[in-house]
Task: inverse folding
């Protein structure tokens, strides 16, 4: 990410199964993207938060392991979707 942020973003799209290619350039400053990755890698939600959340987990998500995630959330629904947030949001109507 630090040396070739555009290439890292394209790799993320490919590995996550997101449709299409990222637009030319970065959607945010490279430093902001790097900060976000560091936060995802180091921060953890407090354990008492998990029972208050209903997680929607994509079974076809190539970046997250649905089996591991469901063990963290007492209230969850696994759907046949991937990592794209708009697919996960659209699925909310199916589970409500």
Result:
């Amino acid at each position: 990410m630090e040396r070739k942020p555009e290439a890292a973003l394209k790799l993320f799209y490919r590995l996550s199964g997101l449709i299409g290619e990222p637009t030319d350039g970065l959607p945010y400053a490279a430093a902001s993207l790097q900060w976000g990755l560091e936060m995802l890698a180091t921060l953890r939600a407090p354990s008492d938060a998990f029972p208050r959340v209903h997680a929607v987990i994509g079974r076809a998500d190539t970046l997250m392991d649905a089996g591991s995630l469901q063990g963290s959330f007492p209230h969850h629904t696994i759907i046949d979707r991937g990592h794209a947030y708009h697919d996960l949001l659209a699925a909310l109507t199916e589970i409500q």
Remarks:
- The CA atoms of residues 66 and 77 lie 10 Å apart.
- The beta strands are 54-58, 75-79.
